[in-house]
Amino acid sequence: RTYRMPKEIRVEPQKFAEELIHRL
Amino acid sequence: VAKSVLFPCKYASSGCELTVPHAEKAAPEKLCKFRPYSCPCPGPFCRWQGPLDAVTPHLTHQHKFIRTLQGDDIFFIATDIHLPGAVNWVMMQSCFGFHFLLILKKQVKYIGHQQFFAIVQLIGTRKQAESFSYQLQLTGCKRRLIWEATPRSVQEGIATAIMNSDCLVFDTSMAQFFTEGGNLVIRVTISK
């Protein structure tokens, strides 16, 4: 049985304004 | 009179056929599969609600940054891990005929202490989620960190899991053992 390397995916960061909302 | 009459579930108009005495309505309504689902995308902006089968199309079309990868064993590469503040990395993994939402969240739980939380959610009911398990694995130089659990259902959300640390949790100092070139690689394996 041949080993197949798992596929990979690059996931970019999503920066939300949660911090700002917490500060308000 | 109310005690002797059977009442329809609150979500009868969406297709639920359950009828129960008034006093027993609350519990099944909480778990009703016809109950509208909220958008599981992390972030405070989306107020979308809809049926379960519309959740994946909603994520794909309205949250275009969420990409999907097929396969039960994948590498999730979170880029720019050092970005300050509250940050999310989100993607979908498709396998066994289901979609899973993978979330890596960086947030400040205690003042001055940033933590990462990684969790897998099934886009399905709680009952469907029970038949799966997932493993998250971080590998660094002679170090390995593994978390194994049952996926949450999007019905439940992840807020409680994060509050109770019922997910993979690590702080920024531990993250550095597994980070290379600003990227954190998480191997995600889902099994049935």
Structural account:
The complex is a heterodimer of chains A (24) and B (192). Chain A has one helix at residues 18-23, and strands at 7-11, 14-15. The model of chain A has no long low-confidence stretch (mean pLDDT 73). The radius of gyration of chain A is 19 Å and the shape is rod-shaped. By secondary structure, chain A is α+β, with helices and mostly antiparallel strands. Chain B is mostly beta strands and 192 residues long. In chain B, strands 5, 7, 8, 9, 12 and 13 form a 6-stranded mixed beta sheet that branches. In chain B, strands 6, 10, 11, 14 and 15 form a 5-stranded antiparallel beta sheet that branches. The chains are: A alpha+beta (24), B mainly beta (192). Chain A binds chain B through residues 6-19, 21, and chain B through 42-45, 65, 67, 69-71, 73-81, 83, 85-91, 104, 107-108, 183, 185, 187.
Topology:
The complex is a heterodimer of chains A (24) and B (192).
Chain A: E1 7-11, E2 14-15, H1 18-23
Chain B: E1 6-8, E2 19-21, H1 26-31, E3 37-38, E4 49-50, H2 55-62, E5 67-70, E6 73-78, E7 87-95, E8 98-110, E9 113-122, H3 126-129, E10 133-140, E11 143-149, E12 152-153, H4 159-163, E13 168-171, H5 172-175, E14 179-180, E15 183-191
Parallel strand pairs in B: 5-7, 9-12
Antiparallel strand pairs in B: 1-2, 3-4, 6-15, 7-8, 8-9, 9-13, 10-11, 10-15, 14-15
In short:
Chain A has 24 residues and is α+β, with helices and mostly antiparallel strands. Chain A is built from 1 helix and 2 strands.
Key terms for this structure?
heterodimer, A: 24 residues, alpha+beta, 2 strands, 29% strand, rod-shaped, B: 192 residues, mainly beta, six-stranded mixed sheet, five-stranded antiparallel sheet
